[in-house]
Amino acid sequence: QVDAVRVYVNSSSENLQYPVLFVVRQQKGVLSWQVPLIFRGLYQRTYNYQEVSRTLCPSEPTPETGPSDQVIFVDVASMAPFNIAYELLVTRLENFQLETNKAFNFTASPSQPQYFLYKFAQDVDSVVIKVVSDAVYPCSVVSVQDIVCPVYDLDHNVEFNGVYQSMTKQAAITVQRKDFPGEQFFVVFVIKPEDYACGGSVPSSIHGNVNRTWNLQRTKNLQVTIVPSIKKSVYIQAMFFSFLSFLSFYLGSVVVAFVHYISTDMKLTVPFGSVSIAGSGIMTSSHPITASTPEGSSYGAIDESSSSGGRQLSSPERGPPAGSDTDSSVEEESDFDTMPEIESDKNVVRTKVFLYLSDLSRKDRRIVSKKYKIYFWNIITIAVFYALPVIQLVITYQTVVNVTGNQDICYYNFLCAHPLGVLSAFNNILSNVGHMLLGFLFLLIVLRRDILHRRAMEMKDIYTLDYGIPKHFGLFYAMGIALMMEGVLSACYHVCPNYSNFQFDTSFMYMIAGLCMLKLYQTRHPDINASAYSAYASFAVVICLAVLGVVFGKNDMWFWVIFSMIHVLASLALSTQIYYMGRFKIDGPDSDLGVFRRAAMVLYTDCIQQCSRPMYMDRMVLLIVGNLVNWSFAIFGLVYRPRDFASYILGIFICNLLLYLAFYIIMKLRSSEKLLPIPLFCIVATAVVWAAALYFFFQTLSSWEETPAESREKNRPCILLGFFDDHDVWHFLSAAALFFSFLVLLTLDDDLDAVRRDKIPVF
């Protein structure tokens, strides 16, 4: 048992010109202070304390010398020309050494700090120091320091050594045996003279009296408990659980693919719910198509001589020969203007009241596919250039935390932060493995579909050429890469989560939501979907707005006014383009105001002058509801100005995606189309898993919008395997939910593989 001595001094003098000086000399160190003891706060405010109590650095007996008497000298001096009364009391501490799993209660103040000794037990490699208090203020600091004298136990020097955290109602520090060669350490408790570091305000009463004596007005009752941390076997168990949980998805995918392989035509099969495309005998005689259609011809060309009253529609202009692999911009931008019939003109075709997929799938298949492949290659480039500096930055953050010991830099859930190597919260990083594994699995599923589709094209299969939704896989590949990168960047963010790097965790979530909306729109509008360059440029603008919102969105009203205007105008402009299928041109001498003038004219003509029914009723309903939702978001942001701007933008994206997906499914069912078992299962699984994931997402365990001490008030213990917390479960479930969401988009229209494109409605 280590003995420690505590010295208490008190002086009635408040004369700052002639303080009483106390010097304590020990065998291995000197400790000195003055009374009144002065603490400096914000803006050079001063706080005076006439009562001071300090614990002297203990001298532990060594095996060579054994127990021995320690001589302590206390020198008292003052330069005052008059007598000053003081009180000196030296006591022996009875409970200086803390015990494992045993709570200890004590009181501390700015002038009376406390520290205690803890020795690792024989079978304990890591412990968690848990400190709690019933009172939020005064603000305090918990520090773990090596057994070195002097001990830094005052407000101005507690950050000089060891690991430390600021604290209001609770704190937790994980300490590993390997970091302390002596297998023991001091736990230091310091009360700060002001509360602004913990989110409080400076007391207004001090403004008129800077020399006020505080003494016992800032005392705090604390309870410390040191408990063993998890063992290495728990780390191994958690890693096995993480990988096996998601590898089971691989096994399930193999089983589903095998079942469909043996249950459909062994010759040609489309994966995940598609019907056989050879020997099915579904083809109707009213629309004859020869199987020798050249691969280079437009896959939207259908002979409609028997269904259009004898009128023969010339086939579109043929693309390059079958063996050509050209990617010229001329061909990509071809509008098929050489078609002789007026129906070939885009402005006529795309503004018909009833549109079918054949109207919007007229461009050459290979050119359109290459256009969408740009999404894939661009997102790889973006991912590399985005991820490299992110990784470098978070490594720097982690290094700073490890070197300085300042655990206020990163906003962990300290009650469930399990270190591994140089990482402070390995569990938050490991839980992101699901995004990477499921993203890669989705890429494999898309690759299998792509390969089977290529084989069918090589065989000139009629169903592949002119039936079903056109197969373009570029956006699916981009979605898989985005899911993997979300896992990588979320892991990077959780290396050291804080205010300055939160956008790492959300940037690819914006891209995932945007790509999903683009893919859903591309399904029945393959010829008029946005190009990769404009799409990624739009995502870049959104990410820039997110960064600006994090910086200026807290208190600056001007930012919310500008953002709300941009949000509303962008919604109107996008709605106009969607309503007119991209044929709403801005031209003429007044092109700068043309879009708004024409929109106002259409609104006046259709809704006020004639009160007529909109030409495209379904689209109009979707766009009205969508605009109401977006305007509601804009008004909400303008009124309440949410502090978490990044999540606010993400909410806008997700709501728009869910709205469009719901509209798509409703219109699909209205058109007498079916939901096959696999997409139906994916829809149900998506809804269930997303509901569970969002429950854990809203279990706030930390918040970089507040001070580190306030954030720690939200910390909670682990809930899964003693290793993962609520946010880790959110990572697991959100990865599965995104995977199922992607499968919904991939398989939703598999029922149309045997339906002619001139019979598939566009909505």
Automatic annotation (TrEMBL):
Record region (Disordered): 291-337
InterPro entries listed in its UniProt record: SID1_TM_fam
Source organism superkingdom: Eukaryota
Keywords in alphabetical order: Glycoprotein, Membrane, Signal, Transmembrane, Transmembrane helix
Compositionally biased region (Low complexity): 305-315
Family under the similarity heading: Belongs to the SID1 family.
Protein name: SID1 transmembrane family member 1
